[in-house]
Design goal:
With 245 residues, the protein is of the alpha/beta class. 37% of the residues lie in helices and 18% in strands. The chain has a single domain, classed as Alpha-Beta Complex (Spore Coat Polysaccharide Biosynthesis Protein SpsA, Chain A). It is built from eight helices and nine strands. Helix 1 packs parallel to helix 2. The mean pLDDT is 96. Bound molecules: guanosine-5'-diphosphate and magnesium ion. Guanosine-5'-diphosphate binds at residues 11-13, 15, 41-43, 46, 70, 74-75, 78, 95-97, 99, 182, 214-216.
Amino acid sequence: MISFSASILIPIMNETFSLRETVDIILNENPRSDLKEIIIIYGTKTTSDCMLVAQSLITEHPDLIIPCQQSLPFLGGAIRAGFAASRGTHTLMMSSDLETDPVDVKHFIALAKENPEVIITASRWRKQGKFEKYNPVKLFLNWIFQRAFSIIYFTSLSDMTYGYRIFPTALIQSIHWTELRHPFLLETIVKPLRLGIKTIEIPTIWKARKEGESQNTFLRNFEYFKIGLQVRFMNPNKIKNQSQN
Ligand SMILES: Nc1nc2c(ncn2[C@@H]2O[C@H](COP(=O)(O)OP(=O)(O)O)[C@@H](O)[C@H]2O)c(=O)[nH]1
Ligand SMILES: [Mg+2]
């Protein structure tokens, strides 16, 4: 493709050294020319220790790292603010707790350059991928969920609930998003699937965070079904922003 630049979205809540390590690895392993910007997204619940680390990263790389305050709440609200702010040709979403291995960023970028119209998405269930220290009950339910949704959507994707993916920015900015909490991660793949967008999966290793805690609760995992089923039968015209119809 003629030009490529990645906007990397990093939502933050209670991460300190994990946030810094995430950014350090991205900067060490990727040429500056591949990166449009790293957008650090914070909200009113982001801890002050976490904000301090973000501030110092922004001060160290003022031409690259940009703060973005979310206006809608929760993880979905944070990523949606990042989607709107993104200026690169492609937008990569990940987390700051090291549960999305930053070493994979370079693989996403290489594949997105070769396949600019496609969504590249990471899977913990593919060969060479894995979960380290994941709650066994959650792991079992996760597997059932993934199998069920791959059948419902006629897709070979094996990890539709994991929020580590790179998209063409024009695509995500043309979609009408509705979820605010973690089920947003599923929404970001099922809506493009309904629009007929192609996907490529790469294996990844998930490791439990070493600091802070998840904003998701066990019971809230069942809320993924709602958006998953709703979008399956949604008219594709309703998926795009109204102004684009
Ligand atoms: N700005 C912002 N970041 C969030 C919010 N909720 C989660 N995050 C961040 O998003 C990433 C994934 O969230 P996490 O709670 O670890 O979800 P889980 O790994 O799916 O259990 C982490 O880096 C969090 O700091 C939120 O409401 N606002
Ligand atoms: Mg996490």
